[in-house]
Amino acid sequence: MLESTIDPFWAEDFPWILLGLWLFYSFLAIVFRGVRNLNYYIYESIPSTFVTLGLLGTFGGVAYGLYKFDTSPDLIKESIQLLLDGLKTAMYTTIAGVSLSVIFGKIIQIQLKGKRVKMPESPELLELRELNKSFGEFQESMLHNQRNALKDGLETVLQQFNEIMDDFVTQLVEKNFEELSGAVKQLTDWQIEHRADVAALLVYYRELTSNHTVLVENTEEWIKMMDQVAGQSSKLQNVIDEFNEAFSEKGNLSQILRDVRTSTGELQVVTGEFGKLAVSLNETTTGMQVTGDKIDSWTDSVKQVSDASGQMVANVSSLRTIDHERLAKLFASIDELFLKYMEDLDRRIENVVTDAE
């Protein structure tokens, strides 16, 4: 029974089959699966397994040669031949196992240099991995819920803020524009009401100035005429004086001459007073002309203020229609800005979650 168990196949061929199978598996594991995807213990045991299989062939061959060895003179030659065959198998398998161990050991050292080797998985590692995965899912879910809640809260706050600001600005603008429109309207009504009076006063002053100018011109002509009369009176005085020297001083002619002299003196006084009156009229005319110019300037200013008030009313009316559009654009831009901020916040949170994983 022992002879049928220990057969030449198991002692000579079986170690080579084991070395061939392990060589094929090791080649596939190193080339196709790689360092990162293979169990570290298996990867590390490849060279030592070749040595073990070589030693198995060694002991198997020696055991096979010794088991068939017979010291009797008739069978000594056959026993020596079987022993040598067993020793050959032992030596060859040992050389092959050690050689393959050295070769694959160098290959493994080259592949392990500068690379991360996958550590063997253990129940604790699997549990920690599942726990980390669950925690990551919980963290992502919590961040997602918080992000959505924050986004909804900000949208609600922004919407309420926009409504409050819209109502506040609308009421403020309408109230201020109503007061401004009322004040401008009162100013315009006052200007319209008194424009005719101012224009009539201007016309009256212009007529008065024109009439006064005519009066001054006539007065100057009167002065000239009075100067001529005064000159004739002086000549008459000279003639009377010469005539008075020729006649008696007690006669009627002398009395007449005295009366004429008195009248001539009074006429000269009146002529002087009339000259002063003419000078006063000239000054009055100049003052009235200045007043007329001031009235013209004031009238022009009033017209300019009236035109400016009308333009202001038009601008206020146009501003009422423009403000709502500008406010709508402003609120839209604020909403767009907050939405961009929320999108950027989402991206940052996702990046943090990715880095944490």
From TrEMBL:
Chain ranges passing through the membrane: 14-35, 47-69, 89-108
SUPFAM superfamilies in the record: Methyl-accepting chemotaxis protein (MCP) signaling domain
Domain of life: Bacteria
Entry-linked InterPro entries: TorS_sensor_sf (IPR038188)
This protein's UniProt keywords: Membrane, Transmembrane, Transmembrane helix
Protein name: MotA/TolQ/ExbB proton channel domain-containing protein
Species for this entry: Neolewinella aurantiaca
